[in-house]
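JOB MANIFEST
job_type = single_chain_structure
chain_count = 1
residues = 284
[input]
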Amino acid sequence: MSSNDPVITTYAQAPAKTIATDGKTFAYRELGPAEDIPVVFFVHLAATLDNWDPRIVDAIAATRHVITFDQLGVGASNGQVPDTLEEAADDAYTFITALGYDTIDVFSFSMGGMIAQDLLVKHPDLVRKLVLTGTGPRGGKNIDKVVGVTYYDILRATLTRSDPKEFLFFNRDQAGKQAGKAFVERLTERIVDRDQPISNKAFSRQLKAIQRYGRSTPADLSIITQPTLIANGDNDRMVPSALSEDLHQRINGSELIIYPNSGHGGIFQYWEQFAPVAAEFLAS
């Protein structure tokens, strides 16, 4: 995006783009004012470009250049989902450098936060600021149970004709149900150039990669000295909330926000509080 292009600050209007490098084609979108250091968004399990909450993206894109992208094998990107999240981090590095960036800020959620950590461990000078939401460290306790939790909630959603994210991301009390339906509704605001949904094969490969991540040797996160914002709900069933506290303890100087009476999607339930905090953190 050049400085002469009109500034787009609404995610629903961000143009769909692709970039090819080393035989790999990545689908992505960008919006917000042009700048040398963008905020790159790392998305969650089973997600495509259409799964980012526009209320959070738009708040950040009001002052920052935002880039979202599909991992290989997902949505409109080609190839196949890698076996490990380390390889997914390598793919992300390929994408970022293909766009010409040598420094970025990171906004990540869930699996995206795991990939972002792996990226930073391997390329510590690449990232200037880091936002980790709904995520946990490599080898974190009970991360490997995500497979059972995910399929159980998909079954519950199917039986009630609901979107699985309403069960996976939100508590099943009145507040959680309302927040879940509102979140899913916001994801439909874009009506043109929508992304391709993830395939069952790609979804299965992502789940196995997360399981391997949860069962592997912890990474040394003491190397993360960048300003870091960590956030989650207090009842995360997918990536246990205690792992956000674990990250906070292991990343020196990090800031931790835990939202009450909320689950994995706590930042989406409390978007009105979280979006300005995240935007200010990334703008300062």
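[summary]
Residues 11-283 form a domain with the Rossmann fold fold (CATH 3.40.50.1820).
The chain has one domain: 11-283.
exit_status = 0
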